[in-house]
Amino acid sequence: MNDTLSDQEQAQPILNVKGLSKRYGKGCSHCETPEMLMIDNNRCPHCGSVWACIDVDLELYKGEIIGIVGESGSGKSSFVKSLYFDDEITSGSATISEYKNGETNIFNESAQQKRYIRNYLLGMVYQNPLLGLKMSFSSGGNIAEKLIASGSLHVGNIRSRAGELLQHVEIPLSRMDELPKNFSGGMQQRVQISKALANNPPLLLLDEVTTGLDLSVQARVLDLIRKIQRELNVAMIVVSHDLGVIRMLADRTVVMRYGRVVERGLTDQILEDPQHPYTQQLVHSLL
Ligand SMILES: Nc1ncnc2c1ncn2[C@@H]1O[C@H](COP(=O)(O)OP(=O)(O)OP(=O)(O)O)[C@@H](O)[C@H]1O
Ligand SMILES: [Mg+2]
Ligand SMILES: [Zn+2]
């Protein structure tokens, strides 16, 4: 953590999530609360609803990277999508220190306020570039869209800022007017990252950003994320089913299983001395 921060800034997390729960499906008398389901199965056998996140707490401090790791279906994407307002939550609260002094539950805000939060305070990189990029817009155009949404109106500025952002992720200016659908997977992720950074958000959400990329490309994207964190001091939530990625990036780690947090702590500690049998299994599979 940066020593130049005041005590107050250090004390207040930039993001504070409390008791976030998300159920997909209408629910029935057998799954009104997640406790009514088996602990190792968050899907209701009667109506098929899924408690994707169950009572998840998370505090993220300025400039910090938190990793969320867990097997497929553990609720990692549901958690970040909820924070980005892609999916409506079932219950819980979240505050952002730079929004209304961190005193307002962002989930209770109006659609317009949520749009503001998304446009000004958050960046999101989706696992699937199709969700994060408009493939029929040039890569520069994708970034411009986000710049305009966050209040940049001057066309000349937008173009030069988009160019700057692309260069930051090592995409040559000469490719600014090309469609991202012609780019490789690693380049598409880099365009997504530069788009997510366009509004200088204090908070970045990265969902499986390197999954599916070749190892060498993966390494470059991970290096890029570390560079961004060093240079811009952005706080990040990095979601991955790959503990290797988490080890590279995250200061602290949260382990999810069946929608619940089963373990949390410093990444080094979790890797060296995992407590939960599931984390032990994950760590051993990495060795
Ligand atoms: N839109 C949806 N409608 C219904 N169920 C959903 C929806 N999105 C996710 N789920 C369910 O919620 C649970 C958690 O899914 P989620 O995508 O959050 O897991 P994940 O940890 O990101 O998995 P992966 O590693 O495969 O990306 C799963 O059981 C999934 O089937
Ligand atoms: Mg996912
Ligand atoms: Zn049910």
UniProtKB/TrEMBL annotation:
- Pfam families in the record: ABC_tran
Q: Which SMART domains match?
A: AAA
- Annotated ABC transporter domain residues: 36-283
**Gene3D superfamilies on file:** P-loop containing nucleotide triphosphate hydrolases
Example GO molecular function = ATP binding
- Give UniProt keywords alphabetically: ATP-binding, Nucleotide-binding
Please identify the protein, giving its name as recorded: ATP-binding cassette domain-containing protein
Q: Which organism is it from?
A: Alkalihalobacterium chitinilyticum
Q: What is the lineage of its organism?
A: Bacteria, Bacillati, Bacillota, Bacilli, Bacillales
